[in-house]
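Attaching the record inline, Q. Sequence:
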Amino acid sequence: VSEAPIPKPEVKAPPEPIKPVEKPVAERPVLKAPEQPQAAFLGGPNRGEGKTGKARVVSETTIPGRTQKPVPPKEKAIKVETDAIEVTEAQSNFADPTARAELYPLVTESTIKNNRFQPASEGQLANFSQQTPELFGKLTDLEKQTVRKQYSIERRKQRNAERLDEFNRKEFNIEPDPALRKRLAEKPPEAPKPEAVKDINRIEKGLKDPDRNFEKALPPEIADQLITKRDAAKATYTEFLIEQVERHSTEIEKGISIKPGSRMDRAVQQFGEGDLTLEQVTKKFGPENTKKIVDGAAWYRARYEEWLRAYNSTAANLYPGDASKLIRRRKDYFRHFR
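Structure, as predicted:
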């Protein structure tokens, strides 16, 4: 056996990686930020570079099809539209009394020139002072009472009430009711003290209506004002409605024989509001039915005047001085009924 050494196998190095072929890249254009557009400042004095004011921005870009005007330099862009007053360096110190005395005539002259304003002379002021008593009187009411009392709400309400009463006399022939106004002017009862109010059980409060809870919790005099008198007014109003409905049924439906919703009933409204003349009604319904239509329109007009006068008479006493509570007459009084 040969003792020669065994040769080692040859180890090959790994192959180098293939590098990609770099293609030449075209140079990209460098984009520059656009310059700020110039601004032409418009306005009066104390406006310009470094001041806040309205500016008209003029772009430097060119628009196809348009001719761009050249932008004036900043030194010539400011235009003062008012007449300037020349002020010396000594006069600019306004704290100096001498400078103020020299500057005031210049300011007055410029104000008169620009605004066409002439100050009143001493003779005109004296003449106006003499005419004041003739125009406005001696104002004796201000001498007797303070300004606060003269222009108080109560004083204005009193004057408005007097004017409103005069209007009601001319427009609706309504005279004020002194007895009712005296009763309305009475001081209302004072609110009950906390110890006078009784507590109510939660279950009992939920099972009963508010009126019954008020009767049990509040003192009798307060409950009478809130519940008893209000219920009496509701009963009077309901009786009035029942009376008027029965009166309409007796005098119109049965007396004149005009059925509600009929052609004659529609003609009553049209004739009463002036949409149909007497000749048109006679031609359409005949002489006999024309008399019924005329009588029906007269009945509705009488009720309208009666109810309107009754309401305005009550409203004028309840709200003295408040004309918004009154209702004026309307031409379409049939629709006003509803």
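Strands lie at 38-41, 55-58. Residues 278-318 form the longest helix (41 residues).

More tomorrow.
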